[in-house]
Amino acid sequence: MGYHTIDPDELEPTPERPCDQRSLTDAAGLDNFALNVYTAEPGESIPLAYHVHEEQEEAFYVLSGELHVETPEGEFAVGPDEVFVAEPESPHFASVPDDAAEPVRAVAVGAPNVDDVAPYEADE
C-alpha cells in the first residue's frame, strides 16, 4: 500500500501552455488516467487547440469561475461544482471568455492515459 499527498501549487506549471496547467499525473505516479489542475484567466484557453481524442474520455470539474466549452453541437457554460464530460471522438475547446469576471480553476481527468489528441477543424 502507498499513500501520499500533493500540493498542486508546489508543482512547476507545464511549459508552453495557454494557461497555468499543473500536471498531477507523474507527481502522483498515475498510470491509468491523466490528472491536471488548470487556472485560466479571462481570454485564455485550457487546450492548445480545438481538438478530439480517439480513445480518451475527459471530464472537467469546475472549482471556480465559468468554463466555456465549444463543441460542434454548441457552446456549454460550465459553472462551479459542475462537470463537463467529453466522450471519445467528441471534439471540444475549453476557454474563458475575454469579458469573464474571474479566472477559472478546474480539475481535468482523462482516461485512459494515452496521447491520442488530434486537432479538429470546426468546419469538418
From TrEMBL:
GO terms for molecular function: metal ion binding. SUPFAM superfamilies: RmlC-like cupins. Keywords: Metal-binding. The keyword DNA-binding does not apply. It comes from the Archaea. Residues 1-23 are annotated as: Disordered. InterPro entries: Cupin_2, GPI/OXD, RmlC-like_jellyroll, RmlC_Cupin_sf. Coiled coil: none annotated. The keyword Metal-binding applies. Residues 37-108 form the Cupin type-2 domain. This is Putative cupin superfamily protein. It comes from Halarchaeum rubridurum. The lineage of its organism: Archaea, Methanobacteriati, Methanobacteriota, Stenosarchaea group, Halobacteria.
